[in-house]
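Holo prediction. Input below; ligand is 6-phosphogluconic acid.
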Amino acid sequence: MSRVIFVGGPSGTGKSTISILLSKKLDCPFIEGDEFHPQANIDKMSQGIPLTDEDRWGWLSILCQAAISVVQGGENTVVVSCSMLKKKYRDYIKETIGTKAQTQLFVLYNDFSTIYKRMETRSNHYMKANMLKSQFDDLEVPELEDHVYKVFCGTKEPEQIFVEILKYINL
Ligand SMILES: Nc1ncnc2c1ncn2[C@@H]1O[C@H](COP(=O)(O)OP(=O)(O)O)[C@@H](O)[C@H]1O
Ligand SMILES: O=C(O)[C@H](O)[C@@H](O)[C@H](O)[C@H](O)COP(=O)(O)O
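Structure of the complex:
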């Protein structure tokens, strides 16, 4: 059966970095969630305004449909980066993918100060460092959610985090 692997967490925790490592290892496509935001969401974030649930539902739907299209197009696996900060977003993703593929969700998390320092150096990204707090406020670290795994990153190198995640993935 095909599978969809989502990599989540607040901005700067390493979603894209880890997703790229996974897609290389699994030799599969990678959907960069940031590239699928409606323009209204990008405009909002560019102005330093955090997204609300209402802003996110449409984006989550687009991402799920993109992942489904990839596996229905014949790919065995696809990796998607998407913050999916709240349990209800993760539930929505699992429900929407449904039986079309096996779904595994990994939520990266870290200390606020570690990520804040990292974000301050990323000046060209539309996600402003001062919006990070709202993301941490929204983050619900998963506990006992089916097919959802939390991954504490701390000061681990991306390779180390990648190896941790691989333990949950059938190669
Ligand atoms: N484990 C890590 N340790 C140190 N730096 C990292 C780690 N993971 C990612 N980074 C760096 O942090 C920044 C944000 O990473 P990125 O993968 O774009 O995060 P996200 O997609 O979650 O916003 C990048 O400059 C990246 O190289
Ligand atoms: O890589 C990042 O910096 C984050 O992924 C970010 O750009 C993300 O697209 C938005 O944070 C989505 O909105 P929410 O995370 O607020 O849902």
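The chain has a mean pLDDT of 94. That is the main takeaway for now.
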